[in-house]
Amino acid sequence: MNKNNLKNGYWIFGNKGNVWSNNAHIFQAGTSLTLCGVPMLSTNWAKLEDVQEIGCKKCLELYNEKMKTLLEIINTDNEPNILKDI
Ligand SMILES: [Zn+2]
User: Fold this and answer.
1) Within a domain: residue 46?
2) Could you give the number of structural domains in the chain?
3) 57-74 confidence digits (pLDDT tens)
């Protein structure tokens, strides 16, 4: 998935190794771990190198799961099904 498709509040993260192996992660603003639980201790090379593509399968899976849950929450209030920024 391209990083431009991430919802507000979600960002791409990758250390040097991640960037080289096309394995950039996703993190949520305000946390120090990627969605898949990798501590973000190093420089965000994915940002510096302007990496576009999220490569981490686990992060993508968790991100999609979060978005699905979000839609279900919004659906329970009988309002139109629009993804709101949190
Ligand atoms: Zn990940």
Assistant:
1) yes
2) 1
3) 999 999 999 988 877 766
